[in-house]
Design goal:
- It is built from 7 helices and no strands.
- The protein has helices at residues 6-68, 74-104, 112-137, 141-149, 151-208, 211-224, 241-271.
- The protein is mainly α.
């Protein structure tokens, strides 16, 4: 590049800046879109779905504890039934919300099979509640307790296992989304630094194009003052227009310096009274 013509140099540097700027914009745009999509999945899918799963686990655990307290008192049994009915309504609302979230996202639908199995197991468990309460009202607490620890227990066990499986999968997706968002943020930060440094370097190089102009200007000023020995100030070397100009200027200054030196010598001879010098010597 150093030996290219000035116009070619400027074109190369300009194209380099344009390419780096385009690269930065492209990387920033792609990373921003990925971050935006990732943040949406975090805030609209994984975080709320995990919150729903946690609420389901909490409420269903309370529900089962409440069922284990088989009551014999009619008023206490009625209060217990009312409380469990309220819990069932809460579970339905949370389940409905969770189903909407799962159906709205393709990745979340991967956990739909386990969630449906969990829902089916919970429905089996819930349906058994009526029999448990009926046995309790008929003073068959032992049979009610056996039912809760038998098939109903297996239904609850399956429900918990499948719900945990969905939760673990969604937690993994949430963790992955956070990692992706952090990586994209780091990439943008690194690209900004690299692009900024590269543009600064190119700007510095472009600024150096004016260096030979300064040297030529100082050399011409030196010539005006009659100083012909300052050839060392012309240090720029290149095959471009400035390099050629400086080379010719150095040659001209050398020739002029030789002429002046020769003329000075002849003038010295004349000053000493030697008037027999041949004109060709001067």
């Amino acid at each position: 590049i150093g030996n290219l013509r000035v116009a070619a140099k400027l074109k190369v540097y300009r194209m380099a800046v344009l390419v780096m700027t385009a690269f930065f914009v492209l990387v920033a745009l792609v990373s921003t879109l990925v971050i935006r999509s990732t943040i949406h999945s975090i805030t609209e899918v994984w975080s709320p779905s995990l919150e729903c799963l946690q609420e389901l686990q909490t409420i269903t655990a309370k529900y089962r504890i409440k069922q284990h307290l088989v009551e014999t008192d009619t008023a206490a049994m009625a209060a217990c039934e009312k409380e469990t009915n309220d819990m069932e309504n809460q579970i339905k609302d949370i389940s409905s919300k969770l189903e909407k979230i799962i159906n709205s996202n393709k990745k979340a639908q991967a956990g739909k099979a386990d969630y449906e199995k969990a829902s089916s197991a919970w429905e089996d468990y819930r349906s058994a509640s009526e029999n448990i309460y009926k046995l309790s009202r008929d003073n068959k607490q032992a049979d009610a307790a056996n039912l809760m620890t038998g098939s109903v227990y297996e239904s609850n066990k399956e429900f918990v296992e499948k719900l945990n499986s969905v939760r673990d999968d969604f937690q993994a997706e949430l963790d992955t989304a956070k990692v992706i968002a952090n990586i994209c943020t780091i990439i943008i930060f690194i690209v900004i630094i690299i692009t900024g440094l590269a543009i600064a370097v190119i700007a510095t190089i472009i600024g150096k194009i004016t260096e030979p102009v300064r040297q030529i200007d100082e050399a011409v000023a030196s010539l005006r003052k009659g100083e012909l020995s300052n050839v060392d100030m012309l240090t720029y070397e290149s095959d471009d227009e400035f390099g050629e100009t400086i080379t010719k200027l150095k040659e001209a200054m050398g020739i002029l310096s030789a002429y002046v030196s020769e003329i000075s010598q002849e003038v010295k001879f004349i000053a000493q009274g030697d008037l027999t010098r041949n004109g060709d010597d001067i």
